Amino acid sequence: MSHKDWLIIYDLSQRNESSSLSSVLDLLVAITGSDNGHVYRMDPATCDLRLIGARPALEDGRIPISLKIEPLDEPRVFRPGDPGFGSFPETVVSQVESLLAVPIHAEGKVAGMVTLCRTAGKQYGPGDIEAARKAGVALYELDALRLKLRTVHQENVLLEKRLAERKLMERAKGLLQVQNGWTEEDAYYHLRRTSRQQRTPMAVIAQRVIDVGA
Questions:
Q1: How much is the pLDDT for 101?
Q2: What is the Cα–Cα distance from 39 to 50, expressed in whole angstroms?
Q3: Which one of 85, 152, 159, 176 has the largest count of C-beta atoms within 10 Å of its C-beta?
Q4: The CATH number of the domain where 44 resides is what?
Q5: pLDDT, tens digit, for every residue of 81-127?
Q6: In what order do the strands lie in the sheet with 65-69?
Q7: Residues 6+ apart with CB under 8 A from 29
């Protein structure tokens, strides 16, 4: 498989769907008179399209499905019998009479895709395509913001952990200096040497020194 192909990875159990994303997708499904809608985010390294939202979440979609499709630069409506129709997981997990696929563009590149499905009724028109295009951009921005906030949270957690470990080190060094008449440098090298000998993080060694001193 070349990177010119797209691999749609449809796995409801792995999606991390926010309430805001769900609301926008619900609204898009209602506006376009669709039976269900899905939003995918593009992995720029592998050109995989990974499911991040589905409304409603179909039970049979809990079985992961991966299918290869040809790249889409513009919105396109697929119907049974059209080339590529069976390449969409949505046509595998439910009965579909019409599928609208709308690529999401960001910074001049395809950043994801929105799909809308109907089991019967009227076909998708220009208004539906425009609504899906606008909603797709909003969905992509919401997901990007969610990822950014998650990264910030992870960085804050890591910073708090490092600060806590720093406090442990300072307290342990102080105890060692008092107990042994060492300099701060002597206490630090003792902690580091013990950490290497026991193959244990310095923070754990520092905590042990504190526990013994207490």
A1: 92
A2: 8
A3: 176
A4: 3.30.450.40
A5: 999 999 999 998 888 999 999 888 877 778 888 899 998 877 888 88
A6: 65-69, 6-10, 48-55, 36-43, 109-118, 98-106, 76-78
A7: 35, 36, 37, 55, 116
What domain count does the chain have? Answer: 2
The answer to whether position 45 is within a domain reads: yes
Give 40-96 as a DSSP string. EEEETTTTEEEEEEEES--GGGGS-EEEEE---SS-EEE-TTSTTGGGSHHHHHS--
Q: Enumerate the β-bridge partners of residue 112.
A: 41, 104
CA distance 203 to 18: 36
Read off the pTM: 0.63
CB 58 within 8 A of CB 96: no
The answer to the question of residue 1 being in a domain is: no
Residues 35, 95: one domain?
A: yes
One-letter amino acid at 3 equals: H
Whether 134 is covered by a domain: the verdict is yes
